[in-house]
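Usage

Read records sequentially. Each one opens with the input sequence:
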Amino acid sequence: MNKSKDKRPKLQEYKNWKELPPIPISLPLEASIGITGDWRTYKPVINQEKCNKCGICWMYCPEGVIKKNKDGCFEIDYVYCKGCGICAKECPTNNIEMVREEEINDE
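and closes with the structure output:
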C-alpha cells in the first residue's frame, strides 16, 4: 500500500488551492531510472522577469521537478523534466514557453 496517500491532504479540506501545504503531485525517481536523457523534444523555459510566482506550474507538474529557489522564483530540474508541457499550459500568465531542445544553446 502506498503510504504517501495517508500523508496527502484532501482537497475538500481547503477553501483555496493556495492553502494547500507544499506537497508536489509526485517526486522524481532517483538514480538513472528517472533521468530524462536526450529523448525530450520540448523543454519548458520560465520567463523569470514576468513570472508572478503563483506556483501553479509547481502544483501541476506531474513529475515534481519544479522547485522554488531562495528568491521565490521557480526553477525546473531538466535532468528529470519529461517536457510534457503541463506547466506551460497551466501558467495563468503564459510565461512558460515550450522550446525545442535544439533551439536552446545555453546548456
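Summary fields computed downstream for this record:
- The helical segments are 4-7, 56-60, 86-90.
- The chain has one domain: 25-103.
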